[in-house]
Amino acid sequence: MQMTIDALPQEYQEFREVVTAFARLVLQCRLFPMNHPSIGRTLGTAFMRIDIALQHKKSAKLTFADGVISFLNFKLNLTETDDKAMHLLRESFARHSVGEVEFMNGTTKEDIASLASILARPPGETAPESSASLGGMIRNIRVRHGDASSEKRAGYLPVPAAPKAVVVAGGRSPRPGGSESKMGIIVRGVLDRLEKMQGRESSKASAKILEVVEREGGSTATILLLNSLQEFDDYTFTHSVNVAVIAAALARNCELGEEFVDSIAHAALLHDIGKIYVPRHIINKAGRLTPSEWQAMKRHPIDGERILREERLDLMSRRVAYEHHMRYDRMGYPSPKENYEIHRASEIVRIADTYDALTTKRPYRKQINPYTAIKLMAKGSGTEFHEEYFDVFLRVLGNVPIGSVLQLDTGETVLVIDISEESDRLPRVRVLKDAAGNEVGDGIILDLNDRDQITGRLKRRIATVVEQSVRDVEVGQYILS
Description:
The structure is a single chain. The chain has helices spanning about 10-30, 35-55, 85-95, 110-120, 180-190, 200-215, 220-230, 235-255, 260-270, 280-285, 290-300, 300-310, 315-325, 345-360, 370-380, 385-395, and strands spanning about 60-65, 70, 75, 100-105, 135-140, 140-145, 165-170, 170, 405-410, 415-420, 430-435, 445, 460-465. Helix 1 (about 10-30) runs antiparallel to helix 2 (about 35-55) and helix 7 packs across helix 8 (about 235-255). A hairpin with a 2-residue loop joins strand 2 and strand 3 (about 75). About 40% of the residues are buried. The chain is built from 16 helices and 13 strands.
């Protein structure tokens, strides 16, 4: 592609920012409902970029042909990039036979959102009659049809295996970012605070989660979905990371193979993605849900499977999203058809999902002590949970799981921070309160296997497990790094 000598770099920069921002908005509209906060932010950016480009102009006209968007003497080839948003914009323009988009001075956010939502419709989805054609004006945006020729076909266009640099008039495209992704940093932060599991199993599982995230890069559907999940509800995002760690550790101990562990880690990260379609006031409601609110909540497995299917994610991830609330006895929701076989990955994720949910503080109920949660879940072994996988789960967490609060025969109150792989070994604990009931500020670590050198007897014994809620104990700060 020839660089134009009389091209102005500032105008090219504005052109590229308009295209990039609008492409990202179309992608967000493709993934999420219009009231999703991620769309609001992306729309704000797109409006700002377009408004800047329209300063002192009556309009800004973009033309599209053969995968190339042009503005004045500048050209941007949408085939020579690995950015999924750009590929979706290319496919959307081609599918709607868009030849030209003209943003008029006075273009509003509503104009931009309307155009993006129409372009974002999945292939095959029927558009309302009022917007079936893009040939008119959406208030202050004119869209004219053109010959899309070979570009016009349904579905995403494939991303080049070895993408070239985008060569444009007036300059060169920026080089890809650093090797450590933003999502990797966010997930690492969650893992550092992980309170459900520690020790060797947690380390392996956590490493697997980070491996999955970093392998995805920065612009895949998985990362875009995780970004939007975190922006929508931080608890659901953190819960998903916790579930992924527990599920990966459980799958490894079930000896299902490293490839399966890798796949279930990925699937568990996205198991609750359908909740982005549940209003936040329902997700965070402090009281009991009304029947209509409960029906909205029960739709999230269906919406989750649909989102992952439309984004062409793997079958295991789609099934886990759809099945993770189905019980082993085929109760739960959605109701499976007769002789329906639940995927084993879904059985494992269900166990991890339930344990994390029970042992985490939420607005509508108290946090349950891990020991109490294990006892409660054990009642559902063979009915609610797959019996074989649940037995492995007990072995991974131990009879007195990490996070349990114990009362020792010395009067001390302690928190379990590490368990041994050997069934006859006692856990290591951190002292919360001394024998007089005073809170201990400095960390004192005890190994309950320690014995008196003279008598050979254990120095401390477990008197009882404190089964009351640990609501007022921030467990994470007591876990050894």
